Amino acid sequence: MKTKRKAAPMAAAAIDYSTLSDFPERFPTKRVVSFGDWVADEFQFGEIARVSREAPVLILRHRETQLVPGGGANAANNLADLGARVYPVSAVGDDAAGDALIEYFRGKRVDVSGIVRVRGWTTPVKARFLAGWPHTKPQQVLRVDREPQSELPEGARRKIHQKLRERLRAADALAISDYGFGVARSQAALDALRKSRRKFITTLDARYDLRAYAGAGILAATPNEAELEALHHASIGRNLAELERCGRETLQDLKLQSLLVTRGRDGMALFEEGKVTEHIAIHGSDQAVDVTGAGDTVLAAFTLALASGAGALEAAHLASIAGGLVVMKRGTATAPRQELQAAIRREITGP
């Protein structure tokens, strides 16, 4: 008896990399508002000293601590390194992590006047502990998350929404990063987007329930496959028919022009209304070093490309290249514009 084979994804439409190289040239002229939840990504590095006598756990001899932008702050960082004039709008606590994030962006000459300091609130922190022997690559052994124990006060929300409205008046694009900490997803923020009369590119990366943004004027969204599965209570894996169903339903429910689904080593799937789904292979090696924050890079590159006049397929390829660059770096990283341009040139001329 013959078994029925699953259909392989169709090859993506051919892309002219010479044309693709034009869009990063325009990135520095674009004003992008980055709106959403700022997170501090903390990395604690240590060398394995011995096994504890108190419990069967390793004792690490602390070597160094690094704190870098995560979540929506990482999206803003990627936008800045891609060359955009970025205007972040978010909230941080009146704490050391909030101080560190603000100082980081001040050091990059990014306008942080849109960041609201909230007394008594906690800046979300994801602390990763990495261990290794001398002269070996450290491996993550533990992650500890510190999250706000209360919702944002109403007064802070009003300040955030006022800063958002002010910065959108001259924006070419708005990139929303919703990590579930309450900055992006509020009724007032959604109402402000729905009532906005000025037209600009609006993109969304939401960890939970994309449908909450239905009717908010979102042009494009960039969920990963796990987020799409959670939204539809589905399991996709290699089932392309299920991927197609979930993607098309999401596109329709949110009235998007495009939906870019990131699929790890399976690349990306681009859905557009009235067009066949494009399956884009991963750029570079499929042996990622670290995928931390890659979704933020994809959001930033995709948003900037659309704002620079690229079509959704061209923007998706640029996002794929940028994402392929950051997953080869350890920790939360960015894909600077010069690296993106160099990667495109290699596609044109060969290695």
Distinctive features:
single chain; 351 residues; alpha/beta; 9-stranded mixed β-sheet; 4-stranded mixed β-sheet; globular; disordered N terminus
Textual characterization of the structure:
The chain is an alpha/beta fold and 351 residues long. Helix content is 34%, strand content 26%. The chain is built from 11 helices and 13 strands. It has helices at residues 17-20, 22-26, 72-81, 96-107, 154-168, 187-195, 225-232, 240-253, 294-307, 312-326, 337-349, and strands spanning 31-36, 38-51, 58-71, 85-93, 115-118, 125-132, 139-146, 173-178, 201-206, 220-221, 258-262, 268-272, 278-280. The strands form 2 sheets. The protein has a 9-stranded mixed sheet, sandwiched between helices. Strands 3-2-6-7 form a 4-stranded mixed sheet. Residues 1-8 have low confidence and may be disordered.
Brief write-up:
This protein has 351 residues and is an alpha/beta fold. Helix content is 34%, strand content 26%. The termini are far apart.
> How many beta strands in the DSSP annotation?
13
The residue-averaged pLDDT reads: 91
Please bin the fraction of helical residues.
Answer: 25-40%
Strand percentage, roughly? 25-35%
| Largest sheet geometry | 9 strands, mixed
Distance between the termini: 47 Å
State the helix count. Answer: 11
